[in-house]
Amino acid sequence: MDYFIELFCSGLTRGAIYALIALGYTMVYGIIGLINFAHGEIYMIGAFTSFIVATVLSIYGFPLAAIVVVTGISAAIWSSAYGYTVEKIAYKPLRNAPRLTPLISAIGMSILLQNYVLLAQTSDFLPFPELIPEFAFMEPVAHIIGSSDLVILVTTAISMLLLTLFIKFTRLGKAMRATAQDKTMALLVGINVDRVISATFIVGSLLAAIGGLLIASHIGQINFAIGFIAGIKAFTAAVLGGIGSIPGAVLGSLILGLTESFATGYVSSDYEDVFAFSLLVLILILKPAGLLGRAGTGKV
Amino acid sequence: MKLTFTTKKLLILAAVTLALIFPGTMKAGETIKLGVAGAHSGDLASYGLPTVNAAKLVVEDVNARGGINGKKIELLVEDDMCKPELAINSATKLVSQGVDVVIGHICSGATKAALPIYKEAGVILISPSATSPELTQSGQYPNFFRTIASDDRQAQPEVEYVLNVLAAKKVAVIHDKGDYGKGLAEIARKLVMDSGKGKVVLFEGVTPGAVDYSAIVQKIKQSQADAVIFGGYHPEASKIVSMMRKKRMNIAFVSDDGVKDNTFIKVAGKDAEGVYATGPRDNSQNPLAQAANAAHKKAYNTDPGAFYESAYSAVLALVNAMEKAGSTDMAVLSKALRTEKVDTPVGTIHFDDKGDAVGVGFAMYQVREGKFVEVK
Predict the structure, then answer these.
(1) How would you list the strands of the sheet with B252-255, edge to edge?
(2) Are B328 and B32 within 8 A, CB to CB?
(3) Which of A127, A177, B294, B337 is geometrically suited to a Cys-Cys bond with B321, CB 3.0 to 4.6 A?
(4) Considering its fold, how many domains does chain B have in total?
């Protein structure tokens, strides 16, 4: 039974990591109906920004809490700037192009950003400072669930809640939903659609930056390629839960994380991806729109 | 395309025919032709160029003291860029120039491609750097020798250390599913099982680049292993070790020279302390190695690069065997290589029946206070 609980906690952590990134994917898809393939790279840039800021601040001997706050804010701003720019370069000029075109340009942005970081920073692995301390009250259960796991779980839950409230109750959220329903109609009633889409990318990038900070601190190392695998897994999770749905992204991520964890624990870690993707295929056969997704026709 | 292919075939045919007519005998009054083949340009040039320097320095020495049994050595340098298709060309060219013996090639793939050509021509080859186990163990290439330990020689010290020094009874063997890591892990598993001293309680591959390894760490804990042997590279190793320490597991973690890298210590930080990794033996105390390195410094004004000591030793072993054998004929020379011990920068070596050097190998290192320190 203990073993089951340990695996369950491992699965939850992994799921929460995917969820932090998947929220950004599902958010952009929900509003403009396109998959932002550069999202994994925005996450990676968030992690790199956090690395640089945190390293510099710790050299000057700031207290840990101040480092975390300043790092979080700078990573969020910097990543948002990248998200905004990606939208302006790769999506806006292609607003009325066939849907496949911006998809390809996003993949191009992803490759560009990866190689840019590779050239501007390094191809080597860098040690990420431990920004989440080991809490004393977690010590009795440290062998099952660590402090950073807990922080990631809590942050994911809060992000999901805030995002849902933001979309349901704020003016900008309403404008986003209107844009999602019908872009032309939204334009006609006076919504600045371009600005709404930019805002969507900024919010998505912000989430990716927080993810980058927390996940890098949990893993303890970063390099220029981390965005790719994390992005693919998070994208899978978002599709599993029903892309476009915010609770769906979290649910899909947790299911994916738990499946991988139990597959490793009870079968073999050689097969974790086999189980994860078999599950995806199965769910998409039974529910093509994903677990919580809206049924609709369209092609990507 | 078709034309070049035919030309290549013709060239090989011509080379083979030539070689059959003159099977590598020493022609009186002529020079001994020593081929040096490997990557001398392209991405992997840094692996191949030190070997050229080593060959030049040794040959200069030998020629200065009058050559081998009165014959001077002449160097024939050929670039293969570590590409198998180019290695075939360089081998053919060397054979057609009447090469007697060859130092090279550098990469395992290129060496494997070139070997049949040398074998047909009866030319002996010593590689300073090709580590693929199959080159010697397949038994197909009696003309192949090497002064570097093959990959599977690493698993042996790992397993011996775990079973004898750490006295572990239950071993978890983890790998990264790659050729190198999985290959090592499979040999380690076999060695543990054959030893009768311990058993393998877990044998599993992890996905490289995964965001979190806590599930596999829980599984290692569940298996109640006393030690972990990991086959793979440092990014995965540091993630697994950090996760183990986070989960308050303090069992020994033993790995290979893919982990014996300073990046591992830099990334894993305090979690790296106490981790074991095998790596090539440290030769810095060997006076011959010191002399070889000093000679390089004097001639080229830089520190020698990868495989320099290994290449220097290969040339010394070859020169010694040619002096003792008095011939470059494959059968005579290979017998001399197998029986005559020679002092080289990598230690006192000779070669076993399969062509692997006896006396070179891997040592065990442990991370202590942020540095890899050799342990006995």
Answers:
(1) B199-205, B170-175, B227-231, B252-255, B276-280, B362-368, B371-375
(2) yes
(3) B337
(4) 2
> Does some domain include residue A60?
yes
pLDDT along chain A (300 residues), means of 10: 89 92 89 87 95 93 92 95 94 88 91 91 86 87 87 92 92 91 90 92 92 91 89 92 90 94 91 90 89 62
CA-nearest of B19, B28, B36, B38 to B122 is B19
Domain encompassing residue A129: 24-225
Nearest to A14 among B205, B212, B221 (CB): B212
For the beta carbon of residue A209, count every other beta carbon within 10 angstroms. 31
Cα separation, B177 vs B152, whole angstroms: 16
Q: Is residue A9 part of a domain?
A: no
Q: What percent of chain B has pLDDT over 70?
A: 92
Query: What do you get for the CA distance between the two ends of chain B, in Å?
Result: 56
Q: Is A220 in contact with B212 (Cβ distance < 8 A)? A: no
Task: Mark yes or no for CB contact A220/B206 under 8 Å.
Answer: no
**Which chain B residue has the Cα nearest residue A211?**
B211
Q: CB of B182 within 8 Å of any CB in chain A?
A: no
SS3 B82: coil
Which tens digits make up the pLDDT trace of B23-82?
444 444 589 999 999 999 877 788 889 999 999 999 999 999 988 988 999 999 999 988
User: Domain containing B53: what range?
Assistant: 2-148+285-358
Does residue B374 lie within any of the structural domains? no
The amino acid at residue B290 is Q
B374: its two tokens:
């050799």
In this complex, is the C-beta atom of A222 within 8 Å of any C-beta atom belonging to chain B?
no
Instruction: Count the Cβ atoms, other than its own, within 10 Å of residue B353.
Output: 10
**Of A31-40, B127-136, B308-317, which has the strongest mean pLDDT?**
B308-317
Spatial separation of the C-alpha atoms in residues B169 and A178, rounded to whole Å: 65
Q: What is the pTM of this model?
A: 0.77
